[in-house]
Amino acid sequence: MSFTAFGPIYKATCALLPERLDSPQAKAMLFAISMQESRLDERRQIGGPARGFWQFELGGIQGVLTQAASRPLIRQVLDRLDYDYRPETSYMAIEHNDVLAFAYARCLLWTLSAPLPQEQQADEGWAQYLEAWRPGKPYHATWAGFYTRAWTYAKAST
């Protein structure tokens, strides 16, 4: 992993979102998902359309922009960062704007009906990742290690 600014970007993103969205569970899930999706190495999917460390496709951006729970949250971020509400604008921006990409990922997690999983709930974390991200080729073998690493990071940086 060559990307080392996860913590500062997480804090910058949290400053743009309501305080209730900042939690160790959120930090751990966002870290684990970014590792699962891009290893925090690729802002643009190799051979695919996804962008940002959380590998959003245009449909995922549209979903966050239109879902009732996430729409006001992401619009608040877009207003603060001076972006319009067109999905294409965000889709292009998240490749280079890690704060915006982080905000989309956090807002997507906010749409889940279940509470975010605790440290010892890697299987629940996997289930939530599948529900929210709907990966085309999910690769379960790496998840437990990333999830454990994410919780180690989340606890150390709190």
Q: Any descriptors?
A:
mainly alpha, globular, 158 residues, 8 helices
Describe it.
With 158 residues, the protein is mainly α. It has one domain. It is built from eight helices and no strands. The radius of gyration is 14 Å and the shape is globular. The relative contact order is 0.19. The model has no long low-confidence stretch (mean pLDDT 95).
Structure in a nutshell:
By secondary structure, the protein is mainly alpha-helical. The protein has eight helices and no strands.
Q: What is the CA–CA distance across the termini? A: 21 Å
Instruction: Give a quick account of the main beta sheet: strands, pairing sense, barrel closure.
Output: none
Number of helical regions: 8
Computed Rg: 14 Å
Any idea how many domains? 1
How many β-strand stretches? 0
Helix content percent band: 55-70%
Structural class: mainly alpha
Dominant shape: globular
| Residues in β-strands, percent | under 5%
Helix-strand sequence: HHHHHHHH
Q: What value does the average pLDDT take?
A: 95
Q: What ranges have pLDDT less than 50 throughout 5 or more consecutive residues?
A: none
Write the layout of secondary structure elements.
Blueprint: H1 6-14, H2 24-38, H3 58-66, H4 71-81, H5 87-93, H6 98-110, H7 122-133, H8 143-156
Helix pairs in contact: 1-6, 2-8, 3-5, 4-6, 7-8
